[in-house]
Amino acid sequence: MSNVYMPDNEDMRRIERDVLVPKKMRAYARSRCADELKEFEKCCKGRTVSMVFVCRAQNSAMQNCLLRYFNEDGLRERCTREYLDERKQYRNSEGYKKNYQNQNSEI
Description:
Blueprint: H1 14-32, H2 34-44, H3 51-54, H4 56-70, H5 75-91, H6 94-106
Helix pairs in contact: 1-4, 1-5, 2-4
């Protein structure tokens, strides 16, 4: 059995799978829907309760755009691969190795 903290291990903890990868997916969707987000933001500026009624069309357009990109085929797999690559790069860094060695020597 390999150590889960080794750089080449691709097992993911629950927080990585259920929180960090979806966070990357949301960031991707938000980057693709920048125009819709700006329109909604512009509509909401200076409004309080009335924004619910006045900005309904902009909110709908923004939500539809975000859902379209968030549910894109293969996005979860791409974001998972990107996350694992970043994690591997971090685990190969000197800072991680030094911390990992210090934690194991204290046990």
